[in-house]
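U., I forgot to send this yesterday:
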Amino acid sequence: MMATDAIPTLSPEMAAEVIDPQSYAAWDGLLDTFDWLRDNRPVARVVAPDDSFDPFWLITRYDDVMQISKDNKTFLNNPRSVVFSGREGIDFARKVTGGSPHLVASLVTFDAPVHPKYRRLTQDWFMPKNLQKMEAEIGALAKSTVGRMVGAADDDGVVDFVSAVAAPYPLHVIMQILGVPEEDEQRMLFLTQQMFGGQDEDLNKSNMADMTPEQITQLVAGAVADFTAYFAKLTAEKRANPTEDVASVIANATVDGEPLNDRDMAGYYIIVASAGHDTTSASTAGAMMALAQDPEQFARVKADRSLLSGIVEEAIRWTSPVQHFMRTAAEDTEIGGQKIAKDDWLMINYVAANHDPAQFEDPRKFDASRSPNRHLAFGAGAHQCLGLHMARLEMRILFNELLDRIETLELAGEPKRAKSTFVGGLKSLPIRYSLSK
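Result:
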């Protein structure tokens, strides 16, 4: 394909839609927009009519998102914000950090040669061979979580699956991995929701339905400060009395012979503590909603546990909890026949890529038997999700337990999605079920 200098720019209305948290809460309309974009403007320039954010390229085709994800030399994470934000928010972040657009310095904001050095610190810990040691413990957590769900149901067998299961279960798993006491788990959940809650007043705990970019960034900065203070105390404990958990690995880690500085260490804890449960929570709720909407598929996977892995992979694709990341072009290049200039900002949209019919037949359908299922919800290349094996393991164990305990399943109300452009998913899922005898 010959590269072009012509600039396909979105209309102001469509530009507003693709960055509006409410669009991600509405979902189906957004998927319609992405369908149109992949067919007509797969690499599109997004410009703010009011100059409220820096222009960027929106990438919606699976193949193009994959190309960018794997080319970590041409497309960088660090120079500009790795998550979409308006100019007010980024300016505030620079003031707070002394110049960085990133409120948190973590694996997702590092490029080579720093990134691989930091990733290696915990990579072995999250590999399947090591995680096998935790299967019995995670199984016990799954059993107790489902037991609490049963106890939380009303007289009609109705319960909010998100608050009863999808939120607390992965939170408890990752906090045990970090060595965080159970009594502090709700604090960790609260701070995570403030970080990733976007403009959703139910999740960001602000009681504000409409927040400015600067207000959102201030809220996130406060959560980061609280996280940092908490993990500073935990670091001191793990240095004095190291154990076999991830917190001890981070607290006692060295890079190039030196301990991690305070900002980088805090960022490492934060990315494990927050991303390690919020995304898995979204995928877990997504899978349960899909099964509640499709009694035939629920019966099929209940009878055939070989489909457990399929449930997990399809839930992660179908939900796409991490909805986008931003990249910065390190040099003049080209994507999908469109010329991209050095320093241009790009949004790789995983929701759009994971619903690309060129890669996934009937992509809006949840199909536990879908094969192959090479989704991009974990990313690809050097920045592929560090905790992907953990997410798959805990979801597989949980759904095995749920399928053992539940005989029938249906929706008992309207599911509600979070208003967020970054990490998204269901914030409530009322279900009705009956127990197996």
